[in-house]
Amino acid sequence: MRPSGRNVSEMRPISIETGVTRHAEGSCLIKCGDTHVLCTATIDERVPPFLKNSGLGWVTAEYGMLPRATHTRMRREAKNGQSGRTQEIQRLIGRSLRAGIDRVALGERQIVVDCDVIQADGGTRCASITGGWVALKLAIAKLMKAGLITSDPMMENVAAVSCGIYAGQTVVDLDYAEDSEAGTDGNFVMTGSGKLIELQASAEGATFSRQQFNELLDLAEAGVAELVAAQNAAVA
């Protein structure tokens, strides 16, 4: 039995509320169970220097956790003093979101997606990717409405879910109680059509077999399909 009482293939309740901030071109509050992340997308008509005059757009991300997002208070991270974990997560979010974008159609501009964890209960990077896509989609919709781009650069949905082996069972969408005790922990980033973008899986307590990995992948595919449906409902 999972600590939450869910069955092995059952996701936590998913909620995506859009338009939650006044100034950002795109924003949403995504809730995956007790993990809550505020995602905002900001349009910048400039690109990083390495893309100047290339005709290509860019999508990047920043990630952070509020001091009381967890059980005990964490110190705020200055940008130049970010932990390795924070840097790794925000690079993952950026890479993931770029995989679903036609950068030529976006034009020579940058969109920055900020993901701020309000409350953490496992799977914050996955929730950030899933909610980040929604914020990005809303920002691009504003560009299209204004006539600044003529074709939609959003090629596919991008979403992510955690899967792991807890108490000897393969399970989807780990909360903190499971994540902290899992023998294997993984994050699966996928497109709406089921293509793989990135996999992160580690044997933390015991090794896992090819069969178990296949089970994790099957759970991830089903979980991402639920997340994609929630994304599409949010931006409809």
TrEMBL record:
MF terms in GO: 3'-5'-RNA exonuclease activity; tRNA binding; tRNA nucleotidyltransferase activity
Group of enzyme by EC: transferase
GO biological process: rRNA 3'-end processing; rRNA catabolic process; tRNA processing
Key words of the record: Nucleotidyltransferase, RNA-binding, rRNA processing, Transferase, tRNA processing, tRNA-binding
Family annotation (InterPro entries): ExoRNase_PH_dom1, ExoRNase_PH_dom2, ExoRNase_PH_dom2_sf, PNPase/RNase_PH_dom_sf, Ribosomal_Su5_D2-typ_SF, RNase_PH, RNase_PH_bac-type, RNase_PH_CS
Residues where phosphate binds: 85, 123-125
Catalytic activity: tRNA(n+1) + phosphate = tRNA(n) + a ribonucleoside 5'-diphosphate
Gene3D superfamilies per the UniProt record, alphabetical: GHMP Kinase, N-terminal domain
Enzyme Commission number(s) of this protein: 2.7.7.56
Residues covered by the Exoribonuclease phosphorolytic domain: 10-139, 158-222
HAMAP family registered for this protein in UniProt: RNase_PH
Family that this chain belongs to: Belongs to the RNase PH family.
Assembly information from the UniProt record: Homohexameric ring arranged as a trimer of dimers.
Task performed by this protein: Phosphorolytic 3'-5' exoribonuclease that plays an important role in tRNA 3'-end maturation. Removes nucleotide residues following the 3'-CCA terminus of tRNAs; can also add nucleotides to the ends of RNA molecules by using nucleoside diphosphates as substrates, but this may not be physiologically important. Probably plays a role in initiation of 16S rRNA degradation (leading to ribosome degradation) during starvation.
Name recorded for this polypeptide: Ribonuclease PH
Organism: Pacificitalea manganoxidans
Gene coding for it: rph
